[in-house]
Amino acid sequence: MRGRTRLRRVALPYLLLLPALLLELLVHLVPMVIGIVMSFKELTQLQIAHWGAAPWKALGNYRVTVDFDAPAGATLLHSFAVTCAFSVLTVGLCWVLGTAAAIFLQENFRGRGLLRALFLTPYALPVYAAVITWAFLFQRDIGLVNHVLHDQLGLTGDRPFWLLGDNSFVALLVVSVWKTWPFAFLVVMAALQSIPKDLYEAAALDGAGIVRQIRRITLPSLRPINQVLLLVLFLWSFNDFNTPYVLFGKAAPEAADLLSIHIYQSSFVTWNFGTGSAMSVLLLLFLLVVTAGYLLATSRGRKSADA
């Protein structure tokens, strides 16, 4: 009897995890393995119906992808640079805005609950509805952005194109930060609840101002949360597909050509599924290396700080 009870106790966690493991296997692992296999095949529109019988190309797709002197490699390298700049700026701005808003709303004042709900609105909206709204706002002739900047404030000499040319990067960054920063705000606001208020009271008695309290108490206490938050924001931004696709369509401008939309164009617009799969595998490897390096660096920093 005791053996059966112990067996049930040991097996129960695995049984509870089994549906999630099966779902992960079907949704992520199996398609990932198929994508890796496709990256070694010469797979175009003609072979996609029978992709298993497509000619074996070995590392040919990878050679084309990393040949930066060729057009395919050069455009991929440009897209990689754009994605890195976009991700760094998005993560930095989201963290600054989210942290500043969370710290500001820690104080009790009338209307604090309303402001918290208002700040979380972009995160609560469906992605497609939010981005489509911004697409209308960025229209050159009828958009509200140009109406305010050009007609009302006179800050621009002419009505700029926000969804074309170099300004498309700014438009993409604005939309991404607007819909992502409430997540940082929510995480930091929750983390601030665990900081004892006695620390702030003691610091105030010692004559420490608000800025010094934030530097000496708030930011060090938020370090463990920020380490995870920054990594999550980076991975989200680097893999963001919905925002550029809804904002620009299938063909994003060169200045806003993120890797996600670039791989989509290579796979489903030009029908080079083998090359697109190779790009996806290289992107996966890059993110795995970055994640492992970041976790290793943060764990070492945490150990040195504890010592």
UniProtKB/TrEMBL annotation:
Localization per record: Cell membrane
Domain ABC transmembrane type-1: 80-294
GO CC terms: plasma membrane
Domain of life: Bacteria
CDD domains referenced in this protein's UniProt entry, alphabetically: TM_PBP2
Membrane topology: Multi-pass membrane protein
Residue intervals passing through the bilayer: 12-37, 80-105, 117-137, 169-192, 221-238, 277-297
UniProt GO BP: transmembrane transport
Keyword annotations of the record: Cell membrane, Membrane, Transmembrane, Transmembrane helix, Transport
InterPro entries associated with the record: ABC_transporter_permease, MetI-like, MetI-like_sf
PANTHER family: ABC TRANSPORTER PERMEASE PROTEIN, INNER MEMBRANE ABC TRANSPORTER PERMEASE PROTEIN YCJO
Stated family: Belongs to the binding-protein-dependent transport system permease family.
Official protein name in the record: ABC transporter permease
Organism of origin: Streptomyces glebosus
